[in-house]
Amino acid sequence: MTILLIRHTPSNAVPDASPLPARVAGHRLACRDCDSLPALVRCLQRAQRSRPALVLIATAAVDAPQWARYGQALRTALEDLPMPYIEMSSNDDDALDEHLHPQHAPAARVVCSSGPQDACRLSLAIAAHRLQAVEG
C-alpha cells in the first residue's frame, strides 16, 4: 500500500524540497506537487483511482477568487475520496475545511505555524499511527 502526500505549492512560492522517508509504517510514500487548485483537484481525482491507504494534503494560501472559481470542484474531489485524508496547513486561514466545509472532515487537521517540515513530520507520524492501528 501507498501513502500519498500532495503538496499544494503555488507557482510563485518556493517548493518544499525537504527530504522525505521512502516508507512510513511499512507503506511506500509517494509525493505529488500541485501548483494550483485545478492541479490539486486532478491529484485528488487520481488518488480516487490509485487508492492509496491514506492521503496527506499540504495546503497553501489561496485568494478568494480562486476559492470561488475552483472551490466546488475541490470539495467534490475531497468528498469523493474513498480513503481518509490528513490536512496540513501553516494557519487556519489556509485550511481546506475552513473554505470548503466538505461533508467528510479530514481524519486529522495539522496546523503548524513553525513550518511545512514540522507539519509534514507530525502528519506522517499520525499517518503511521493510524495505519498501524488499522493493521493491528
UniProtKB/TrEMBL annotation:
Catalytic activity: 3-dehydroquinate = 3-dehydroshikimate + H2O
GO MF entries: 3-dehydroquinate dehydratase activity
Pathways per UniProt: Metabolic intermediate biosynthesis; chorismate biosynthesis; chorismate from D-erythrose 4-phosphate and phosphoenolpyruvate: step 3/7
GO aspect biological process, one term: chorismate biosynthetic process
Record bears the keyword DNA repair: no
Top-level taxonomic group: Bacteria
InterPro entries tied to this protein: DHquinase_II_sf
Gene3D superfamilies membership: Dehydroquinase, class II
EC number, as in UniProt: 4.2.1.10
Assigned keywords, A-Z: Lyase
EC main group: lyase
Family: Belongs to the type-II 3-dehydroquinase family.
Subunit structure: Homododecamer.
Protein name (database record): 3-dehydroquinate dehydratase
Organism for this UniProt entry: Stenotrophomonas rhizophila
